[in-house]
Every structure is written in structure tokens, then in C-alpha cells.
Amino acid sequence: MSNRHRGSWIAGGVLLLVALSSLIVPALSPYDYYTPQLDLISKPPMLQGGHLLGTDPLGRDLLIRVLWGCRISLLIALVASGISVGLGVLWGATAGYAGGTIDALMMRTVDVLYSVPFVPFVIVLTVLFGHELWLMFVAIGAVSWLDIARIVRGETLSLKRREFIEAARVSGVRGARMIGRHIVPNLLGVVIIYATLTVPTVILFEAFMSFLGVGVRVPLASLGSLIADGASDMQAHPHLLLVPAAVLAAIVYCFNFLGDGLRDLLDPRQQS
Amino acid sequence: MLRYILRRVLESIPTLLLIVTIAFALLHAAPGGPFAADKAMLPEIRHSIEARYHLDEPLWRQYLRYLGDLAHGDLGPSFQYRNTSVNQLIAAGLPVDLTVGLSAIVLALLAGIPIGLNAAWRRHTLWDRLPMGLAVAGISLPVFVVAPLLVLVFAVKLHWLPAGDWVHGSPSHLLLPVAALALPYVAYVARIVRGSALEVLNTSFIRTAHAKGLPAHRILLHHTLRPTLAPVVSFLGPTTAGIVTISIVVETVFGLPGIGRFFVTGALNRDYTLVLGITILYGTLIILFNLLADLCYAWLDPRVRLE
């Protein structure tokens, strides 16, 4: 058991390190992610000049571009999973607490939305409305809340029958206040677990879109677009593919590991 | 059973209508049009092109016209590929995606189920820890990372397998795309099977089987496997539909002539009918595979009633 906890701590520490260095290093480095240096095209990692991970085909520092990619990934982890968790919790808690026709209608909507092919929708939305970064974040968040809504509704249904909710109702608490003050805080454990499990999916969604060229706009780099650029040049310069691929895999791995650890910790039913 | 299928098919019509309506509204609400980019075009020519594709009509008429054609199974002409219908483009591309996608699902099941069962049977040993540790890594490696890496190793460095130049029906051209697509799903299936098998192995009928002195392989294959597969089946419904979408990535990396690339270029070029047609196709696939998964679920677990 303690072994697992240690693993989760390490995963959290790695993520914190990535977050801090992606915030600090680009601010301190003499290089930026967009200025080409045509005398330094596709250099391998070198100490001279401080290009620790080498440069890309336009001579831009790969470390800085990868760290900008990490910024995008972590930003989407915050924004998109925030939106999806917020929407999912509100929807699920309202449906579960209200019950009856409202519940049936709201959950039927979720069922219908499960059949909507979201990947094409997000691609169309982002492409047609001009590759706005925030729009992609909101779109990805807005399509990832269905699972959370279902789980939260289930939890709310069992929570509703508990004594303290009854006590609150007797003392006159109703509607939105009941959901906000008494139901949602008690859902926190489940919500934290599923938020952690949502994070890797939204990070991969953004990277997937940028890989296809329908995500971030050049010259800004995302880990997905760096992987796509690296793949087109991998024969001559494999490090351009390997570095961003390894960083993306490490970030997603840490979030997955953290999610598994939290589930073991907070969800007693999963323990064997 | 037949009644159930019929009801599900009828229920899917409003869902599809919703998908069509949202997609149609979204496409037409966006700035720019399919022929707006060609600045050099004479106004007369533009008018005649727009009249040909009925883009000069009011929106509600275009919408009704589209729905009417759709009811006949006609997805309309592509704007971008002149003299080609969306139906023809889909008919050309879909078999490629289905071949690659379904092979990947089969591979994921063939590899994932034994790994997961074995891990559950020998829980907390190296046979459990090592594959499950690798499985967390597996679900962290998306297809667009695995695919270029496989090309780098097996095509560029080792020259064992071709990396592109798709030849229809050639198994060696299928191998790398299918492997790249299947790898994350092997990990997912193994994790689900392990979790589900752990629960099944704790039940009393398994204890009875042990008590009767049945050998391990018989307990696993005859008693554990079938109830274990139920969550796998409900995972497979949306996943099989999704894998056809995700295969855009392997299409891009391996140069496969599937529909995913039509979709991306169609979106970039405002090819309304092509984008709509493929969106409807994806929606239909999701509904279809979910129905198939529910039918399989009822077959695996006879207690489930289809109603």
C-alpha cells in the first residue's frame, strides 16, 4: 500500500516539476518559441549556446518549444477538465436531486449526446471559427462531461436518502442551495477521482487535434504539433520526434498514475 | 429481440436528426463559404456555381433539400472534389478504415483478454504487476505517438515493413497501422478484464468450482470468462465506433486512403456536404456499434432483459 502512495507522490512531483519549469524556464531563457535562427537548423542536443535538446528545422530551441507545449497541455488540463467537471457535477447533481420527470429528461439528453460524434464536431468548430485557442479548450471541455454527469447522478441518488440531507430539508433548505451546499460538497471524493481521470483524455484530445493540424496555430507549439513535425522529419533527426513524444507520454502517464492512486485511496469499493 | 432492434433503430432517428441539424447549423453559421476563398472568380461564375449547389437558396430550403436527399440515402455532391458524390468518397474510404479498425479491435481482444485474465488469476505476483504497470504506460501512449515510433523502428531503421504506399489487401501494409491502432486498446482491455475478473473470482460459484477440484484452465475458460467479458463488451460499443474516427491518425502517418483525411481537408475547405456526410456516418456507426454491444451484453448475461 505504502508503495503505491510513494508512486503517486513521485507522479505528483514530476507533474509539479513540469509545471514549474514550463512557467519559469521560457521566461528566463534567451530563446523564444517563434524566432528562427537559420544558422542553427536541426541541431542535435548540445551544450554550446544552451540548446539542451537541440533545435528544430527552423533553428528554434526545442526545449523552449516543448515547454510551451507543456504549458498548453497543462492549461487545457485546467480549463477543459474544469469545464467538464463543473458541467457534469451540476447536471448530474440536479438530475439526481430533482428526480422524476426532470431526471428522466436530463439523463435522456445525456443518452442522446453519447451518440453524437464529438471528434468531428470539435474539429469543425475549431477550424471554422478560426483556430482560437480558448474556443478549442471550451469545446473539448464541453464534450467531456457525460461520464461525470452519470456518475454524479448515481452518487446523488444514494446521497439523497441520507439523514443529514433530510435534516437540512427539515430546516428549510431547498433547491439550488441544497445542491450547492449539501449535495456537491459530499460528492467531492468521486469528483476528484474522475477529474483526475478526465485530465489525460483532454490533454490527449488537444494533442490529437494539433497533430492533425487543426489545433494550435503556428508558430505556437503544442506537444501534438511537435510530434507531427518530428514525425515528418524523423529519418534525419529522430530527436525531434522522440523528445515531445516522451514528454507527452510522461505527463499523461503521471496523471493516469495519480488517478489510479487517488481511486485506491478514496474509493473503498475498488479495494481488493 | 426483433422488436427490440426495431425500436432501437426507430429511436435513433431523432438522434441522427439532431446531429444533422447541429452540424448543418454550425457549418452555415461559420464565417466564409466553400467558394468565398476564390477571390479571382468572376461574380457570374460564382453565381452559377452557387446556383448549381443550391447555395443561393434560403437556408431553410437548403436544409429541407438536404434532409430530403438524406432520406433517399443521398449525401449530395462534394464541393471540393468536382463531379464526385460524398457517397462515392465514403464508399472508397470506409472499407480501408473498417479493415484497419476492426482488425485492431480483434487484435486488442486477442491480446488483452489473456493478459488481464492471467493478471487476475495470479494477482499481486510479477504476472500481475509487470503487465499492469505496462498497461498504464500503454494507455498513456496515444496512437499518434505509437504510430510514428513504429515507423521509425520497423520501417526506417530495420526496413522490415513498409511505412506507406498502401496496396489494397496487402497484409504487410496492414501490419504497422493495425499494431499502432491496437496497442493502447490492448492496455485498456487488459485493465478492464483484470478488474472484472477479480470480482468474478471472488464470487461463490467460483469457490464452488474450486471446491469441486476443477483444474485452473477449466475454471478460467468455462466459468470466469463469460461473466468477465460483460464490461469489456460495454467498453467495445463506443470504442469500436471511436477507433474508426481515431484512424485519422494512422491514415495521416501511413498514407492510407481512408475517410478521415477527407474529413479534415473537407473542414478546412468548407466542403459542407462532405463534412456533414462523414459526421452522419460517424453518428450512425456509434449508434450501430452501441446496439451491437447491447445485444452481445444480453447474450453474455442472460439475466439482462432487452426492453
Describe this protein's structure.
The complex is a heterodimer of chains A (272) and B (307). Chain A is an all-alpha fold. Chain A has a single domain (3-270), classed as MetI-like fold (Orthogonal Bundle), CATH 1.10.3720. Chain A has helices spanning 2-28, 62-98, 100-114, 118-128, 133-142, 146-160, 163-170, 175-183, 188-211, 223-232, 239-266. Chain A is elongated, with a radius of gyration of 22 Å. The relative contact order of chain A is 0.15. The mean pLDDT of chain A is 85. The longest helix of chain B has 39 residues, at 216-254. Chain B is globular and about 85 Å long. Chain B starts with a helix and ends in a 7-residue tail after the last helix. Chains A and B meet through α4, α9, α10 and α11 of A and α1, α5, α6, α9 and α10 of B.
By CATH, the architecture of chain A is named Orthogonal Bundle
According to CATH, what is the class of chain A? Mainly Alpha
Uncertain spans of chain A, ≥5 residues at pLDDT below 50?
none
Count of discrete alpha- or pi-helical segments spanning 4 or more residues of chain A: 11
Main beta-sheet strand count, sense and barrel state of chain A: none
How are the elements arranged and paired?
The complex is a heterodimer of chains A (272) and B (307).
Chain A: H1 2-28, H2 62-98, H3 100-114, H4 118-128, H5 133-142, H6 146-160, H7 163-170, H8 175-183, H9 188-211, H10 223-232, H11 239-266
Chain B: H1 2-29, H2 43-52, H3 59-71, H4 86-121, H5 126-140, H6 143-157, H7 171-201, H8 204-211, H9 216-254, H10 259-268, H11 272-300
Helix pairs in contact in B: 1-11, 4-5, 4-7, 4-9, 4-11, 5-7, 6-7, 6-9, 7-9, 8-9, 9-11, 10-11
